[in-house]
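Entry 12.
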Amino acid sequence: MAVRSCQTSPAKGGANLGAARQQSILTLINQGDVVSVGEFATSFGVSPETIRRDIRALEEAGHLRRVHGGAAPKRTFDLTARRPVAERLEVDREGKILAAKAAMALFENDMNVFLGASSTMLLVAQELVRSDKRLTITTNMIDIATIVAASGRCTVTLLGGIVNPQTHTVGGHEVLKSLEDRLFDLTVMGTSAVSPVHGILGPTKYHNLLVTTLASRSHQTSFVMDSAKFGRRDAHLALPLSQVDFVATDSLPSGDIAAALEEAGVTVLLPEGGHENRAEPTQQTGTDNQ
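Predicted 3D structure (tokens):
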């Protein structure tokens, strides 16, 4: 029987370290972030020139793109969801406003609903204030809670958790824990991207945990998004389309997205005047939804 030595020569060890470092770089990049040479060098304890060589090698292998001062995913994810909410409100704003108007068809008086946190969902909250809807609302977005509560028509609960000053949200384990004994007629959320293959996508693993938790506790699950989100990519699967009931958007999807939504049985809601495939949202009755 042949026996191979476990001893590694210095050259071999250096090559192994370089390969491990390049794999770590690729893992970080594929999360959707643009990372600088300086950040990599500090993280791995090597010189910036070493990192530049790693990035060149990975680019030549077709794994990433070099950008000024760093590296980015080869196929660019939508990075808008990583920006502060005040900036995101101005991106595709007209489409978001129309999608928010389309979402009004989801709500019926006396519903118990969860409103997720996003720039589009903030516009949904503003539309609700202008409507005459009377709702019981739970949310993890501070701005949504204050805007809707000020209307005087809705009972609003803001979940507790760790405050994110950029997104104006609360998050973390405390939010997930507080949802364990809650049930909702309807959950309405935003999203950063929709894939015809994978479904609703999000920027972090936490988005997956929150969305799947809410979907399991809601009679119906809906997403509100401008049509620019169709076909975009992001780092994490949030929810398969088979678990989505409604999508409210500004214009009718086409191509692979339209086919995927139809196959999954998702009802598409458009603003007034658009062509829409509408099914009425239903309110769960009884004390088990309180």
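Annotation: The chain has ten helices and 15 strands. The longest strand covers residues 218-224.
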